[in-house]
């Protein structure tokens, strides 16, 4: 909407200095965060009341001890990801350039993975099952991610470094060619599930997503700015600056969601919120060719995922568990550490990792 108005009244001009970023991009990025935040905060109470009458959390994990510790969370409204996704979409429609292919693809990722997450949540709530099986979820995510990756591959063909795997330190890169499609699907699915595994305590995933989203909002802006990209020796992706609007919208939506999700939570995001936001992180990293840096930016999500893999592998091959309960945050819950303390410490770690990732750009 805002972009149309700027074009209509003659304010939409290409900036020769950036080669890509348009007038008011910085302002639109900031405005997107505000619009999504206000959308989430204003719609939140209505959405929570509606969800409370239809979609309540059922505490039914594989651990009886964990079920006991989280018993108080039973019947809390879930699928709060519905108003997270809505806030992102509203902010994007208001502030982003909808003629930009990256923006359209990012919105497709958010809505598509959001629908998959909603299906998983619906099965958990309406049946005695624990949602889609791991295989069903991975297959569905992979098929959708491969479709988006194929389209992204066609777009990246026109970018000078669009198909290169860029390493964060030094000036090393690896040309992926058609392998970019499979790699992209792997990154999006992995990032999506990493956030999903982290979403186990009040405010944990949402807070970490704020810091990761801020980092990629900055990386998107820098990648879309020709002079900045050249100065930092990072790939210049024409059109990537507009993704800063999407990431700002995600940050605003998460802050608005945290308004209700902080301990004790009034609502949970469910897979409806964790899957699309995680996939958006992966997609943005692929566009700006900083998916390796995502390991640092999303370090909390990576550690949570590795903790599950280590737990399963250790128990399968040795019959012993390396953690009291996985993912890692549950291990600390079992150790008697308060939920708020665990969450804040994970937030601190996420903030420091995001700063480290952005600071590493100049080390090149």
Could you characterize the architecture of this molecule?
By secondary structure, the chain is mostly helical. The protein has helices spanning 2-8, 25-52, 64-69, 81-95, 101-126, 134-156, 179-198, 204-224, 226-232, 243-261, 270-287, 294-297, 299-318, 328-334, 339-359; strands at 164-166, 173-175. A two-stranded antiparallel ribbon has the order 1-2. The two termini are 39 Å apart.
Summarize the SSE layout with pairings.
Layout: H1 2-8, H2 25-52, H3 64-69, H4 81-95, H5 101-126, H6 134-156, E1 164-166, E2 173-175, H7 179-198, H8 204-224, H9 226-232, H10 243-261, H11 270-287, H12 294-297, H13 299-318, H14 328-334, H15 339-359
Antiparallel strand pairs: 1-2
Helix pairs in contact: 2-4, 2-10, 4-5, 4-10, 4-11, 5-6, 5-11, 6-7, 7-11, 7-13, 8-10, 8-11, 8-15
Keywords:
364 residues; mainly alpha; 66% helix; 2% strand; 15 helices
Please give a quick description of this structure:
66% of the residues lie in helices and 2% in strands. By secondary structure, the chain is an all-alpha fold. It has a two-stranded antiparallel ribbon with strand order 1-2.
Helical residue percent band: 55-70%
- In whole angstroms, the N-to-C terminal distance is 39 Å
* SSE series: HHHHHHEEHHHHHHHHH
Q: What is the residue-averaged pLDDT? A: 89
Structural class: mainly alpha
Total number of strands: 2
Beta-sheet strand percentage? Answer: under 5%
Low-confidence stretches: none
Number of helices: 15
Main beta-sheet annotation: 2 strands, antiparallel
Tell me the radius of gyration. 20 Å
